[in-house]
Amino acid sequence: MTNDLAAQSIGELAPKLRDKQVSPVEVTSAVLANMDAYDENINAFIRMQKDEAMESARQAEQEIQSGNYRGFLHGIPMALKDIMYFKDEPATMGSEIHKNFVPTYDATVVSKLKMAGVTFHGKLNMHEYAWGATTTNPHYGACKNPWDLTKIPGGSSGGSGAAVAANMTIASLGTDTGGSIRIPAASCGIIGLKPTHGRISKYGCFPLAWSLDHIGPMTKTVFDAALLLEMLGGYDPKDPSSVDRPTQNYSGQLTEDVKGMVIGIEERYFFNNVDNRVNEAVQHALHQLEKLGARIEPVKIPSLAQAEFAELVTITTEASAIHHDNLIKQPEKFGEDVRFLLEVGELMSGVDYVQAQQIRRKLNLEFAAAFEKVDVLISPTLPFLPSAIGDSVVDINGKSLSFLDEVIRFTGPGNLTGLPALSIPCGVKDGLPVGLQIMGPAFQEEKVLNVAYAIEKLELMKGQKPDLIS
């Protein structure tokens, strides 16, 4: 029973908690038991908060027993990436420099989750300052992939991906600047949603690159991602990038009906130089959607050819502006890989940055034109399977290529444009999960979620679990 509870989703647990079939104490105990069983090997947590979690669970139990049920998240255990602020609690950002930083206020997303009655039970490991995609953290140790402990969980929200996959948390939140929600979601076989830029407030979240940063849910099911989006979305005057657009009842609108939908594929960019195993899994999912009545339509987005340049210049320049003083005063306190990237950002010129923003404008126009013809775009999330911890290269069909060059090739355009994008597992190859990415028009997350829900109902991952918890 204990393991069963920890393996369940918000959508499965919430009605049982509401109807008092199980208690928040039982659910939290199950999650904490998995933390004890698995995290010594996985290292998904920077900080565990077991006593605080049990106290919170007992309070939730009393409230529900008294008839004060707050809703779907009441009594649900969640651990968040250690980059989101909790008042009077350390937020390390996975760094040495900020290891003793204690915020004086809650992040907006934290405030909303507290109001909803979430039980918090820990802070999750991440790539230092969210500036990387491996979560091989020099200060808190490498986080490992539950499917294969020799592989990376992706990053920068690797602790979130690994913890959800190993049932050490029911759900989590990550941040995404070049793919940092979707990359670990694909690597760990879970759902990762990057909403439209401005949909979820970033107030109280340490920045990596202001114009590219997003916060989003990392969950076991599409329903859970939809639920968290509708609860966390909305305008926040404290966040200058927040957009005043109403959210919807995303979880209540999910349908597996894709009949008549038009799915776009941009073959020249999103299906170029892809591991054959990854391509096979994604093509199989596309074929299944066709059988359900969707239509596949090729599209052309010419400026994608310049997307990698624009992403690199924007993210490195903005990140280096944020860390400039510390890079000068205490460079030795950064991990070697992060220090290198920050030094690269210092070399970028104003001309480079302006040209990158011009490319972003072209991309937005071309994506908008594409979405006049298609409902969503589908691609692989990653062009390769999760790589070995410590490797700086990846193998794609016998070619040895730079990990840094390849890892955000398909996710970066979603950050440059700010468009909603979701990664969903679509199969397992050689014991590792494959992620499929769905992109949609701005502020139309419902389209992305509905296609993801249809893919989820195909049960392409049926019976497949990480080796560690099988």
From TrEMBL:
Pfam family, one: Amidase
Residue span, Amidase domain: 26-449
Gene3D superfamilies per UniProt: Amidase signature (AS) domain (3.90.1300.10)
Top-level taxon: Bacteria
InterPro entries in the record: Amidase, Amidase_CS, Amidase_dom, AS_sf
GO molecular function, one term: catalytic activity
Family: Belongs to the amidase family.
Protein name: Amidase
Organism: Planococcus versutus
